[in-house]
Specification:
The complex is a heterodimer of chains A (236) and B (362). Chain A has helices at residues 39-47, 69-75, 92-100, 107-120, 137-149, 167-184, 195-201, 219-224, 226-233, and strands spanning 2-11, 14-24, 28-32, 54-59, 62-63, 77-79, 155-159, 187-191, 204-209, 212-218. Chain A has 236 residues and is an alpha/beta fold. Chain A has a domain at 2-84 and 153-233: Rossmann fold (3-Layer(aba) Sandwich), CATH 3.40.50.300. In chain B, 70% of the residues lie in helices and 0% in strands. Chain B is built from 14 helices and no strands. In chain B, helix 3 (45-71) packs antiparallel against helix 10 (226-252), helix 5 packs across helix 10 and helix 11 packs across helix 13 (306-321). Residues 1-11 and 356-362 of chain B have low confidence and may be disordered. Classes of the chains: A alpha/beta (236), B mainly alpha (362).
Chain lengths: 236, 362
């Protein structure tokens, strides 16, 4: 469970998140909104890349903001990026293993966890020692997801994981994302503009607009909300 | 599927080396044996001294390659770092009777501390700004060295005595007093430094550096302490350059601040880029360009100053057509040439008979 209270982020004179109050309980939760609404800023706050002007974030009872960025990742905050950031010159295995390297688990257990993560994402058909630069865009996205789910993450942040993917790879990715909570027992927050992906994966969804939370609740109800339709989805 | 995956995973386990790896290891071993045993017999003293300098500067360009190629940090202060290593080694060699390897280790560690201080701005800066800061540092060290001078057997902290008439030479190890023996000694030290870098690249620091170079946010999101690994890179590069400074002190016997001009750091970066920053062979190529080529031109009576133009063009060529440098490009070009020659030597297949044009009926 993640509990956000009074979260405010300012970039100079621009307020990117304005007194945001939000609670995500469990499973996969959606976070949607138009470009510039503050979704990625929210992820950057959770990952420690952006320091908020005010507010608190408690994840599973822990004050997240008191930890430095890399310690948050080691504690279990994992994320993907809008522009895919798998490390090109390393192998698939090393890309995933480097995230789990700081764990205190034994080498054999870590190795098993890495292989499990690779297999879970459906990358088992690719040789684990294949360099990431030789993979397709969809496979690289899966490497990123494998990096996010390896070991025992507590909070998985997926920032437009299907952006730029063709339909078939996008639907493959949706299958993987749906399985993440069960595989990891982590809370997953999914940011995406693909409403079919959000509807398929997320039981609950929150909507941001100009840094303010305009709706949250069960996904189906949120997507029918008049304020959400006006601000983001539009009228067909 | 699971079993297949486990079997297919050769990482971090003992695995059978591939044919390419075996050939590469055999070529490397043969070259090293040739360099250690045959080369000193074949070369004149002039070229043996030059090759000692190549061994020294291969360590310097190796260290610069770690910073630029592995971590993506541009340093224009490597000549100053080399001078610090040489100064520390010279001072210790005059002041103590410690064995030479211990002196090299100490010089490396002293330089490492200095390197960590230079590396501090790298925690906040990258690219041009970091390059500028390190260049200013090199300039400052040049000024300090011109004032303090290199030790020459005098007393006190600086170990410099301007009134000495007979300046004692900086000593060499007992086992490597002659020029050929010292050349071999330098090569062995260089091999150890290359092995040290190789061990880093193949383990956790290498992976962390690769992540930092490509994307710092991605590295942080993977739980990598980017500050630690950036400083680690600076510490390693400075240690290696400090050791190189120690070897240089013994090679030249007398050190002067004029031998470490600030602008040489820029030339070093240029040759390192030309050699190739992503491969360890690139460091050797860079050192050959930096030391062997000027010596060759001098021997032929041509001014080595022309090389600045050549290096400028070389960097332009590398940045536009071969970003991985000569160490990557030349083998590829040779392989391409080989394929072309083999293609010519092979008899051309008989051209297939042209089908008879079908008779067209009017």
């Amino acid at each position: 469970m993640i509990e956000v209270k009074g979260l405010t982020v300012r970039y100079g004179g621009v307020t990117s998140l304005d007194d945001m109050n939000l609670t995500f309980e469990q499973g996969t939760c959606g976070l949607i909104g138009p470009n510039g609404a503050g979704k990625t800023t929210f992820f950057n706050v959770l990952s420690g890349f952006v320091r908020p002007a005010a507010g608190t974030v408690r994840a599973f009872g822990v004050d997240l903001l008191s930890m430095t960025h890399f310690r948050r990742a080691r504690w279990g905050v994992r994320r993907t990026f809008q522009t895919e950031q798998a490390i090109e010159e390393l192998s698939v295995f090393d890309n995933v293993a480097m995230v789990h390297e700081h764990s205190r688990l034994g080498a054999a257990t870590r190795r098993k966890d890495v292989l499990d993560a690779i297999e879970f994402t459906g990358l088992g058909t690719v040789a684990p020692d294949a360099k990431v630069r030789t993979l397709t865009a969809g496979q690289r996205r899966l490497v990123e997801v494998a990096r996010a789910v390896v070991g025992r993450p507590r909070l998985v942040l997926l920032d437009e994981p299907a952006a730029g993917l063709p339909d078939d790879e996008s639907s493959r990715l949706a299958d993987v994302i749906r399985g993440v909570p069960e595989h990891t027992r982590a809370l997953v927050i999914l940011v995406d503009h693909d409403m079919s992906l959000v509807s398929a994966c997320c039981a609950t969804t929150a909507v941001l607009d100009f840094g303010a939370l305009i709706a949250s609740g069960p996904t189906a109800a949120v997507l029918r909300d008049d304020a959400v339709i006006r601000a983001y989805l539009g009228v067909a | 599927m699971r079993d297949t995956l486990v079997r297919a995973t050769p990482l971090r386990t003992r695995q059978k080396p591939s044919r390419t790896q075996l050939i590469s290891a055999a070529v490397t071993t043969a070259l090293l044996l040739f360099t250690l045993f045959a080369l000193p017999q074949l070369l004149s003293l002039y070229y043996i001294d030059t090759m000692t300098q190549v061994a020294v500067y291969s360590m310097v360009t190796l260290a610069l390659g770690v910073l630029v190629g592995r971590v993506g940090l541009v340093s224009l202060g490597q000549v100053a770092v080399l001078a610090i290593g040489a100064w520390a080694a010279a001072r210790l060699l005059f002041a103590t009777t410690q064995p030479y390897p211990l002196i090299l280790l100490e010089a490396g560690l002293i330089t490492m501390v200095a390197g960590l201080i230079i590396g501090l701005p790298a925690l906040r800066l990258r690219g041009l700004y970091l390059a500028l800061i390190t260049l200013m540092f090199a300039g400052a060290i040049t000024v300090v060295l011109a004032t303090v001078n290199f030790p020459n057997g005098g007393h006190g902290f600086t170990g410099y005595n301007g009134s000495l008439v007979h300046i004692p030479p900086i000593r060499r190890p007992a086992v490597a007093g002659s020029d050929p023996a010292y050349f071999r000694y330098s090569v062995v030290v260089a091999i150890l430094m290359f092995a040290l870098v190789y061990a880093h690249i193949k383990t956790r620091p290498g992976r962390a550096w690769a992540a930092i170079r490509q994307s710092e946010p991605a590295a942080l999101a993977a739980g990598i302490n980017t500050w630690l690994y950036k400083l680690w890179a600076f510490a390693l590069a400075s240690f290696i350059t400090g050791v190189a400074g120690g070897v240089l002190a013994g090679a030249v016997h007398y050190l002067y601040s004029i031998d470490f001009p600030t602008q040489d750091s820029i030339t070093l970066l240029a040759v390192t880029l030309m050699g190739g920053v992503y491969s360890m062979w690139g460091a050797v190529v860079a050192a050959l360009l930096y030391q062997f080529l000027p010596a060759l031109l001098n021997n032929w009576g041509v001014s080595a100053d022309w090389l600045i133009i050549l290096f400028g063009l070389g960097v332009l060529q590398v940045l536009t057509t071969a970003p991985a440098g000569l160490a990557d490009q030349v083998p590829k070009d040779l392989a391409r040439l080989g394929r072309r020659l083999r293609g010519r030597a092979r008899p051309k297949p008989e051209p297939a008979p042209k089908p008879e044009p079908a008779e067209t009926k009017p």
